[in-house]
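Budget justification note: compute hours in this period were largely spent on complex prediction jobs such as the one shown. Inputs:
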Amino acid sequence: MVDLTQLNPRQREAAKYVDGPLLVLAGAGSGKTSVITRKIAYLIDACGIKPHHIAAVTFTNKAAREMKERVAALTGKGGARGLTVSTFHNLGLNIIRQELATAGYKAGFSILDQDDCRGIIRDVMQREHGDDGDMVELVQNTISNLKNDLITPADAIHQAQSQQEMLIAQTYSIYQRMLKAYNAVDFDDLIMVPTLLFRDHPEVLVRWQKKIRYLLVDEYQDTNTSQYEMVKLLVGHRTGLTVVGDDDQSIYAWRGARPENLSLLKQDFPTLKIVKLEQNYRSTGLILNAANRVIDNNPHEFQKRLWSDMGYGDPIRILKCRNDEIEAERIASEIVERRLRYGAGYKDFAVLYRGNHQSRMMEMKLQAFQVPYKISGGQSFFGRNEIKDIMGYLRLLINPSDDAAFLRIINTPRREIGPTTIEKLSEYAMKRGTSMLSATTEMGLEQLLTPKAVDRLRRFGHWLAGITRNAYADDAIAAIKEMLEDIDYEGHLAQSSATPNQAERRMKNVWFLVDSIQKMIDKAEEVGDEVTIEDAVGKLILRDMLEQQENEDESDQVQLMTLHASKGLEYPHVYIVGMEEELMPHRNAIEADTIEEERRLMYVGITRAKRSLTLTYAGKRRQYGDVSDTTHSRFLDELPPDDIEWEGKTETTPEQQKQRGQETLAGLKNLFGDL
DNA sequence: TCTTGGTCCTTTTTT
DNA sequence: AGGACCAAGA
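Corresponding output:
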């Protein structure tokens, strides 16, 4: 039986309340994951709900994985078998897979990432409006927003108020048709398609309502309209809903999140019960106080006051550095020193920043100090050309209609198939209503193309068909390896890379990708599941499972990540760097007047720290190629001055700096003797 | 078709 | 500073 005695009274109340819809307002570090996981165990053990009737939805793969592990630990081996814990996008993917026909897709459909989508939109706009590409990003964002708001192309055309809106709506409409033709969905479709399916097909909805009898949603403040609609439809008039959220940690409004969904719950579920978790188990008093003070500058729908009984702890430090290089150096050297002083591991330190590009300098300096580090997130891996290429091949293996993938790889590595050939092929395919891949082996091409070109296309088509057969017939991994051999991808990298070193690194990435798929298949076999290539590629695109591998080698490394990526995580020692106006808060946020969201981001960053928090800024920063003066962030002035050690606010003389250095050295000698 | 060199633009955050 | 994109030449 579940043990709820480790929970505090509020937490226990939240875990045990199953008689109606429940909103848990969980402040940072208030143990909400404990509540969710124990509640799941309670539902299984005490309420007799079968695990396969329970679904917990999160926003990141990391959170989903952690939750799964913790539930497994509570319920014992197999006790949670059949339980669904996944991201919204993953859940959506599964729904579409199981409702393929109704949803209007074919097996093996592709999931396109933003780059792929942008390419399609660019083509559409080019073709339809002769647009030069300046509008593409705007249009892409707008389409994404429309989808997040559950607005279909027809709705959009109907609603359009201006010429520009009409243009976007039409582009949206064509774009959506092209996706269908490619048998592909984008990220937003993973939410919108299932939701529309539920809305328009009652029999489908009933099926899923029968399956999911209890729904738990984490980070509710991050849901968008479409996601909320899905939740409402799934729950219907029943009582099985628990949502957990914190309006102060809403940092995804820019991608369509509606923090007001928290307050909408009260209207949509009149019997809603609200439980607040206000005790923080993570941070020292001074850190928490600082966080509270900062967030006090924002308006609040739900009042809450976080408190902690962990003692006051060390003051928060603000370090002014001469420039960004010195800033990074300072942090790197401090980590070296503090690791010894506190007997801490590298993994106890996190360096947080606003934008991914800020990791560069930090990386350089950590290397210089021989500090092991890990950068998480960033587009780094999937943004790489070699990965996009191979993913293109994989997508084409499982979805021959994926013209976007076809276009990416048809001439990579070089097959002497140029723009003219591709253009003609595309026209032909369009006329015949087939995909470009299947058009390559059709007879009608002779009329349009030179025999040479026809031959090259045909060879490609037949070759890929062969690989596909192998991939499905027996060992998929072997087929993929064979494919890499056939196209001599290594050779391609060797001659397209600047240095042999770079080529080697790229090839390593490719192998990493292949290994990931391999591992995934192996792992599933262990548990007795079967993983198709479709599953594997889907997971890859949704960024699932990569971190898993990273986590497996629980290595001792300093963690580098964006403030966004840090949500939900905690570290004993946290550095937040680049605390400057125009950087944090970001210039665009200042211009767009979304300071409140930036402040929440600051709040998220501060509340990651358990024991020590250090904020740094640089007086001069190298940016866009040249050096500019900076102003320290307004958020620094919002911190409680009495709890702050602000070094460098008033100019320190070189003597003072020297003295500080000697004090540090003396401290080290005290601790470790003369080295 | 491929390579080269020049220009211009960038840097917000992610499933 | 670094990368993407494009025009012109081999």
